[in-house]
């Protein structure tokens, strides 16, 4: 694996390899000394063209726990309207000897361009590009689902400790909300399908992309019916951006209240789920819009754990990209 | 005194071989192959197995001057046009300043005359500054030395229906035509590529086919209502072909163009995120490509026009979302038409002359000089093509000042061997021929 650009590029075995490596990384994080010497002397650049404090801190933590040197490079704004081009930025990072570049960009495809344009030879790790992909988010979501639903004692589990070695065969995941603009949804649909899970996207018709019928998942406009009738094992709520409901005649739904009424996860809807089912959210949450406080703070919610798992998954991704192998991991 | 050319063994419109002699700016003689005499000082061009076409006429070219001379100038763009076999181009109005006054269209027209590669016919803007708010002085542009007959806000759509109606009516006074860039603006805000399976997957904002089709449907009905002629620019979807077919069936005076790139490229190419494939209207699906080929073959689509849209490297060497729309096309158009339509048996070379010369010349009302039959006494605006040649496209090696071809690295059939503008070779042996009469013309002024 030279780059991590899209979950569509991962085979089942590769994906399980990342999750298993993440489990090993997570195990080290309960030690007193969390820092591992693995990437000592390697340089990881966090190149962020779009603000995302959470994702940047998660990657920064991951790289530092592996003893890499970390440089944060904030290049907010359009490359054309404001200053340096993507190409010049890439050439600069190449000259500085970056071994891996973690890139967050407002433009779909920018990480792929960095990986393939020949501007630099570092490993490219997509930390979210436009409305395209967010592979480490999907990996941390899969990791979280596997821990809860595919491990020993889990209702559908039976694999080793924390689900190591297992895929997500037969696990049902509902992804609810603004699919059209969501890189998290795109990344999850591909990865969950690769791992054998079943996915239903639940969204108002305006927020499902034209062409979604070719995706390896089902779609529904009815959250209640999906929760009660399909009985998902995990419900992933997507963040609704407030600008989607402004824009006058171009708004995607009539009002926040109506959105919450039909697509918000609240205590009543939570009660439709089986006891084992978990509630997920990539954060940051709009409490009271797509998720109520009761749902967000319930025992079913694994939202805070997702953040912790994010560090382990990103450690795994950096480790695998920079060591180039899953063999002989000694932590 | 111009050079006399003897085109030995050429096949006019792909038909029987003949010797064609060009002298004094006209087709002087057409004889049996090998029969033409060679006057003193005449140049003999070995044209055995080469196809002779009327000089190509592009109804849709962006020459970028005035304003974006870093991307293209009238001189560089028309040199590229000659290299591609063209003898006339219609220069689109979206320059800076916009070609919305007699002054600007006359400037572009004069720059074309000075460059001398092809006849440059400026297109006038329909609305002031392409703003879509009020009509530009269409009559003044029509009456200027540039004699504008094609009006277009290309790059923008004349979306206000009452303004479009007025424009369609107004240009009747001087036999003009409105060439519509059919793009419903509200349906395409922020749009980056064709809306469909690929856009959904790769996360680029979609540009629905209906945004093009809805405008075409409205415009053909408006044209019918007011009895005007309408030209549809760069039609790109199967639905658009259906609407134009229906309109023609009703007797509506509509013509339509397709670009070479929409005849062959699809939105699958966007998966690379290479902005070379970012264009307006966007590349569509394989089904749309087949529909526009069928439409061109059955005459629903009247012409091929390049929409040659040069852009600087910095406007293309960036993120897809930040990149400019457009691709160069003058030097690859004929090859793409040969590959997709002639080599596949869907058009003859006579049809190619129709869709790339005769009909665009008629739509643009330049058919007194261009798109003429290949016959004795006609203006010697001609293109000689070697259809057996094959070449690999190299953007940097083209005559256009910009390198943004989507065909880089493609092997395409056919090569323009020579282009003649009123009997003067602008291209010979496949290479542009610098003009030698400039000093004379300068002295005459």
Automatic annotation (TrEMBL), chain A:
The keyword Transferase applies. Belongs to the aspartate/ornithine carbamoyltransferase superfamily. ATCase family. Residues 2-146 form the Aspartate/ornithine carbamoyltransferase carbamoyl-P binding domain. Residues 170-321 form the Aspartate/ornithine carbamoyltransferase Asp/Orn-binding domain. InterPro entries: Asp/Orn_carbamoyltranf_P-bd, Asp/Orn_carbamoylTrfase, Asp/Orn_carbamoylTrfase_sf, Asp_carbamoyltransf, Asp_carbamoyltransf_Asp/Orn-bd. Gene3D superfamilies: Aspartate/ornithine carbamoyltransferase. L-aspartate binds at residues 82, 183, 239. It holds the Pfam family OTCace_N. Pathway: Pyrimidine metabolism; UMP biosynthesis via de novo pathway; (S)-dihydroorotate from bicarbonate: step 2/3. NCBIfam families: asp_carb_tr, PRK00856.1. It comes from Isoptericola luteus. Keywords: Pyrimidine biosynthesis, Transferase. It catalyses: carbamoyl phosphate + L-aspartate = N-carbamoyl-L-aspartate + phosphate + H(+). GO terms for molecular function: aspartate carbamoyltransferase activity. This is Aspartate carbamoyltransferase. Heterododecamer (2C3:3R2) of six catalytic PyrB chains organized as two trimers (C3), and six regulatory PyrI chains organized as three dimers (R2). PANTHER family: ASPARTATE CARBAMOYLTRANSFERASE, ORNITHINE CARBAMOYLTRANSFERASE, MITOCHONDRIAL. Its EC number is 2.1.3.2. It is an enzyme of class 2 (transferase). It comes from the Bacteria. Catalyzes the condensation of carbamoyl phosphate and aspartate to form carbamoyl aspartate and inorganic phosphate, the committed step in the de novo pyrimidine nucleotide biosynthesis pathway.
TrEMBL record, chain B:
Binds 2 Zn(2+) ions per subunit. SUPFAM superfamilies: Composite domain of metallo-dependent hydrolases, Metallo-dependent hydrolases. The active site is at residue 307. Zn(2+) 1 binds at residues 60, 62, 154, 307. Its EC number is 3.5.2.3. Transmembrane segments: none annotated. The keyword Zinc applies. Residues 50-237 form the Dihydroorotase catalytic domain. Keywords: Hydrolase, Metal-binding, Pyrimidine biosynthesis, Zinc. One of its GO terms (molecular function) is dihydroorotase activity. InterPro entries: DHOase (IPR004722), DHOase/Allantoinase_Hydrolase (IPR050138), DHOase_cat (IPR024403), Dihydroorotase_CS (IPR002195), Metal-dep_hydrolase_composite (IPR011059), Metal_Hydrolase (IPR032466). Pathway: Pyrimidine metabolism; UMP biosynthesis via de novo pathway; (S)-dihydroorotate from bicarbonate: step 3/3. Zn(2+) 2 binds at residues 154, 181, 234. It catalyses: (S)-dihydroorotate + H2O = N-carbamoyl-L-aspartate + H(+). Substrate binds at residues 62-64, 94, 280, 311, 325-326. Its cofactor is Zn(2+). Belongs to the metallo-dependent hydrolases superfamily. DHOase family. Class I DHOase subfamily. Catalyzes the reversible cyclization of carbamoyl aspartate to dihydroorotate. PANTHER family: ALLANTOINASE. This is Dihydroorotase. It comes from Isoptericola luteus. The gene is pyrC.
